[in-house]
Amino acid sequence: MAYTVRIAETGESFEAAADESILDAATRAGVRLPHECTFGGCGTCRIKVHEGAVDYEEFPMALTEEEHEDGYALACQAHCRADMLIEPAGKGLEFAPSFATTATVVKVEPLTPDINRLVLQLPEEVELDYRPGQYMNVVLPDGETRSFSMASALLPDGQIDFHVRRIAGGRFTETLLRELKPGDALHVELPLGTFCFHEEDWRPMILAATGTGLAPIKAILESLLDNDDCPPVTLYWGMRTEADLYMKDEIESWAGRLCEFRFVPVLSRPGEDWQGRRGYVQDAILEDHEDLSEYAFYLCGAPEMITQAKQLFVARGAELDYIYSDSFTFQHATALAA
């Protein structure tokens, strides 16, 4: 049996069989829906279901039960169970098409014992048009990819940089990255993803990052420095120890350059001398805010944090339409699948 799927904004429509995902049906029909990982790990293909119903063979990682009940679905995993009217959850933002190119390594430098900064030079003829918050894929020799978010709003002379955490047994982070030297070539695909600042919201922003999830958050906030239209900003950054706060001084220097900027580092394994917040970023946010109904949220990092934060914040009044997230699930899931 086939169902008709209509897209609210564009009026496009296509047929979807009961045994195929909405994304597969759209791709087959030549209808573009934003997507990346295709196995429910990243949330890029999130859609709003205005009419109809879906189900899943297995409930996807990047969707919460609350989102499902509120009418959201992941197109890469959802199967139609009725005629559908859907809307991609990107609020009509346009993103430059991605492309493949060969970048040159400028440097690899340590930020912590487990995190490196990787700086790449794009070819002179390449003009990169990306929204801060997006990411790139490094293409490995066998065609597999590893994903890393751009860590700056803009670097000079066509350079881009990334914060790369070493993953035990990781093919890129523990093997290839160690061998890279200036002048080496890397095959990359970019820009990718839909995580970015939503200027149209104009709500006070709460940004929560864990680990190197700080990278796209940093890029977003750098794009807002000295911007008179910047909404109030609070950044929570979760790390294990004080030594892991590799950008603490730079972040603190943003005070006065972002509207009402507040920076709250949160440590899960602090030393005895630590005078700051302890625990987890989602709990620190709840401790500081009784009512979350007026905020826009940007969440990036561990999937467990993102899933829990969404559930807790909605219970405290947050609206799902103003919760944006970038989970680092999909690159790990790809490695496991391989």
Automatic annotation (TrEMBL):
Cofactor: FAD; [2Fe-2S] cluster
Ranges where the FAD-binding FR-type domain occurs: 98-198
CDD domains per UniProt: fer2 (cd00207), flavin_oxioreductase (cd06189)
Signal peptide: none
Ranges of residues in domain 2Fe-2S ferredoxin-type: 3-92
Keywords: 2Fe-2S, Iron, Iron-sulfur, Metal-binding
Pfam families found in the cross-reference section: FAD_binding_6, Fer2, NAD_binding_1
Protein name: 2Fe-2S iron-sulfur cluster-binding protein
Source organism (scientific name): Yanghanlia caeni
